[in-house]
Amino acid sequence: MSKIAFIYPGQGAQKCGMGKDFYEADAGARRLYDQAGDLLELDFRQLCFEENDKLDITEYTQAAMVTTCLAMTGVVRARGLEPDITAGLSLGEYCAISVAGGMSELDAIRTVRSRGILMQQAVPAGVGSMAAVLGLTADEIEAVVNPMEGVSVANYNCPGQIVITGYAQAVERASQALQEAGAKRVVALNVSGPFHSALLTEAGKRLGEVLETVEWSPLYIPYVTNVTAETVTDIGLTKGLLERQVASSVRWEQSIRRMIADGVDTFVEIGPGRTLSGFLRKIDKDKTCYNIERLEDVDAVVDKLASNKSAEARGACGPV
Questions:
Q1: Which of 199, 203, 288, 291 has the lowest CB atom count within 10 Å?
Q2: C-alpha dist (Å) from residue 70 to 7, 54, 96
Q3: What ranges do the domains of the chain cover?
Q4: Over the stretch 164-195, which tens digit does the pLDDT of each residue have?
Q5: What is the pTM of this model?
Q6: Which pLDDT band holds residue 305 (cuts at 50, 70, 90)?
Q7: Please, are residues 121 and 128 in contact by the beta-carbon 8 Å criterion?
Q8: CA distance linking residue 130 with residue 119, whole number of Å
């Protein structure tokens, strides 16, 4: 039988209006948005559904994204679709852990609100930067970047797309060296800090203090961690992994390959955009990825997967 993974996007996928149709049509989704707003003293309807200047600011983005993705997931699960494993890109890992049973939805939302503030305040504006490197392999990029000081790999997204991070001048020098090494393009990213770099180590330690206040629960399904791209079944490991994750490389391509090796052949991306679906096509074009970002997607995806399972069952039993 097919194994299904729920996967969650990270910061950068946010968009105005995300989750509005879920909020308006589903009582459970509406309750989560409202509870999150009360908890954080934020107007989530204004933040997520109306044009505003806050949605792209890290300290607001992270809570908005996690609330939206978890609200959407609640509707999906109410239709009876459950994952065999979960994973999320950077910020999205908090959704993955919550859906796997490791922390409550409100603890996840509260924690990423603190995470966003700590990450935003970690490095003064202009000190750090990030850039996407297109057209080189991970080994080729590491050969250039690893000997250099002040710059490292932030994200292994998919073949041909890797992000570097660190001090702005170091990222600029690395970008030039990577172009000379054959990169098709090196694109500076419009971000507020050098995320997933050693410059955020102290922010990770401070996040660890916040994570001490989380009420952890045993995982009832596994998730895959960004830090090592390994499957996690012991919730006791999670706090340390999330603390490290802030300053560690996001091993997304490796995480997808880990799940495929464990038998996952169907991925469901839940949240705004189709970023992770695009990465999957470049990692393994033979695997299927469905997207749920609008309410109308829920029935379409659930019905399609139910139909696939019925076909598998008939095939396993032989002709009827």
A1: 288
A2: 11, 20, 9
A3: 3-122+198-317, 128-188
A4: 999 999 999 999 999 999 999 999 998 888 99
A5: 0.95
A6: very high
A7: no
A8: 14
C-beta separation of 189 from 220 below 8 A: no
Pairwise CA distance, residues 178 & 195, whole Å: 20
Is-same-fold flag (3-122+198-317; 128-188)? no
Q: Which helix (H) or strand (E) holds 33?
A: helix 27-40
CATH 3.40.366.10 at 3-122+198-317, yes or no: yes
Please say if the pLDDT value at position 314 is more than 90. Answer: no
Which amino acids are annotated catalytic? 90, 196
Give the phi and the psi of residue 174 in degrees, each rounded to 5. Answer: -65, -40
CB count in 10 Å sphere of residue 261: 9
Contact 102, 217 (CB under 8 A): yes
Take residue 169 and report the two structure tokens written for it.
């001048």
Asked if the 128-188 domain carries CATH number 3.90.25.10, the reply is: no
Query: What is the structure's pLDDT at 300?
Result: 96
